[in-house]
């Protein structure tokens, strides 16, 4: 018997009037930049990079299909903005893979046009970009744009002998903001499995992760909300009996990350509680100037946990979906909440 699991994040884009395009010669995943392996914990990991050769920024979504013995695992993931003539790497862990020899099909890419006011941050390629003996790299990035960028991250394709693509890495620092003309240091570590095999890194910079709109069916009605995370949310559902939102939060990176979930306000007194695998965890709740609730919490390194969020009002009329401009991902409150967790980690 074959079982199919399909998760789609960009359905709401149709309702917002945006045109979704299939992969083309200008947006694709090169054959030499897609791979998979079992990590040190035995979790099946898919790595790759979407190449954007268009002359405008895009928001790509990849659909990954894995033949796992008698079932097909099919999941879709929306990635951060890929600037013109740039790549956006991805690294996704599938702990539901149970066979020793899964077959990875070539992912399909769809995309929509991204924001026109994209950031202009570059890696400084000079003698300050160093590959160290333990396999990690360090260097500097510089903001060549005219505006401050928040939540900056550096991703890298990791190459081994004969230019073989072996891993994807992400900077370990919390670069909360980068002013115009400012330089800041970053460092990236490969999976320990490949530490001795690293030859060089191809680095790419992004800032301010996109806010992803989605929805669930709640009491036979559509309930719109958004989320922002450096990881991925899958299998999103609303449990009407428990009046709670459930999903799996996956963080493929070897450092802590966060998730920031945004809900329309149903009442002034709402109090959300976050549970991880059935146990209550610490979270931060705030409300922004658009009268939207933000519920933020940490994601452990290389983790995949079931999350339940309670605190929804019963018998309340659901509000109209969020406006399209939020797709740009430039929401100061999200950056503020991320900063709260970054500062807590510094003082812990």
Task: Tell me what you see in this structure.
The chain has 3 domains: 4-113, Immunoglobulin-like (Sandwich), CATH 2.60.40; 121-207, Sandwich (Immunoglobulin-like); 212-347. It is 6% helix and 49% strand. It is built from 2 helices and 28 strands. The strands form 6 sheets. Strands 1, 2, 6, 7, 9 and 10 form a 6-stranded mixed beta sheet that branches. The protein has a 5-stranded antiparallel beta sheet with strand order 19-20-23-27-26. It has a 5-stranded antiparallel beta sheet with strand order 21-22-28-24-25, with no helix packed on it. β4 and β5 form a beta hairpin. The N and C termini lie far apart (49 Å). 37% of the residues are buried.
What is the chain-wise order of helices and strands?
EHEEEEEEEEEEEEEEEEEEEEEEEEEEEH
Query: What is the number of E strands?
Result: 28
Number of helices: 2
Helix-strand makeup class: mainly beta
**Radius of gyration from the CA trace?**
20 Å
What is the end-to-end distance?
A: 49 Å
Low-confidence stretches: 1-19, 317-348
Tally the structural domains: 3
The pLDDT mean sits at: 81
Strand content: over 45%
Features:
single chain; 348 residues; mainly beta; Immunoglobulin-like; 3 domains; 5-stranded antiparallel beta sheet; 6% helix; globular
Ordered list of secondary-structure elements with their pairings:
Blueprint: E1 4-5, H1 11-15, E2 21-22, E3 27-28, E4 34-38, E5 44-52, E6 58-68, E7 71-78, E8 86-94, E9 103-104, E10 108-113, E11 121-123, E12 130-131, E13 137-143, E14 149-159, E15 165-170, E16 175-178, E17 183-188, E18 200-207, E19 212-218, E20 221-229, E21 232-239, E22 244-251, E23 257-264, E24 273-276, E25 279-280, E26 284-287, E27 292-299, E28 303-310, H2 332-347
Parallel strand pairs: 1-7
Antiparallel strand pairs: 2-10, 3-5, 4-5, 5-8, 6-7, 6-9, 6-10, 11-13, 12-13, 13-17, 14-15, 14-16, 14-18, 19-20, 20-23, 21-22, 22-28, 23-27, 24-25, 24-28, 26-27
């Amino acid at each position: 018997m074959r079982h199919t699991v399909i998760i789609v994040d960009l359905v709401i884009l149709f309702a917002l009037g945006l045109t979704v395009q299939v992969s083309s010669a200008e947006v694709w995943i090169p054959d030499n930049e897609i791979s998979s392996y079992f990590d040190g914990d035995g979790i099946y990991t898919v790595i790759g990079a979407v190449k954007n050769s268009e002359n405008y920024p895009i928001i790509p979504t990849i659909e990954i299909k894995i033949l796992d013995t008698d079932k097909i695992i099919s999941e879709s993931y929306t990635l951060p903005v890929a600037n013109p003539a740039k790549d956006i790497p991805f690294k996704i862990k599938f702990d539901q893979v149970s066979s020793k020899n899964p077959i990875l099909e070539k992912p399909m890419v769809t995309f929509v046009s991204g924001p026109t006011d994209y950031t202009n941050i570059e890696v400084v390629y000079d003698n300050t970009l160093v590959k160290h003996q333990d396999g990690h790299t360090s260097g500097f990035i510089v903001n060549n744009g005219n505006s401050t960028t928040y939540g900056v991250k550096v991703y890298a394709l990791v190459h081994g002998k004969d230019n073989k693509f072996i891993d994807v890495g992400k900077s370990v620092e919390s670069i909360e903001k980068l002013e115009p003309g400012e330089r800041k240091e970053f460092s990236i570590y490969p999976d320990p499995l490949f530490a001795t095999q690293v030859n060089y890194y191809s680095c790419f910079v992004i800032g301010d992760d996109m806010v992803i709109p989605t929805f669930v069916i709640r009491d036979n009605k559509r309930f719109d909300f958004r989320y922002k995370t450096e990881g991925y949310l899958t299998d999103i559902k609303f449990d009407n009996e428990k009046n709670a939102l459930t999903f799996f939060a996956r963080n493929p990176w070897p450092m802590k990350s966060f998730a920031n979930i945004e809900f329309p306000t149903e009442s002034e007194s709402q109090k959300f509680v976050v549970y991880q695998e059935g146990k209550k965890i610490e979270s931060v709740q705030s409300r922004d100037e658009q009268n939207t609730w933000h519920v933020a919490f940490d994601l452990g390194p290389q983790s995949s946990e079931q999350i339940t969020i309670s605190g929804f009002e019963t018998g309340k009329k659901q509000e109209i979906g969020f406006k399209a401009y939020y797709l740009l991902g430039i929401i100061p409150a999200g950056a503020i909440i991320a900063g709260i967790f970054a500062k807590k980690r510094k003082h812990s």
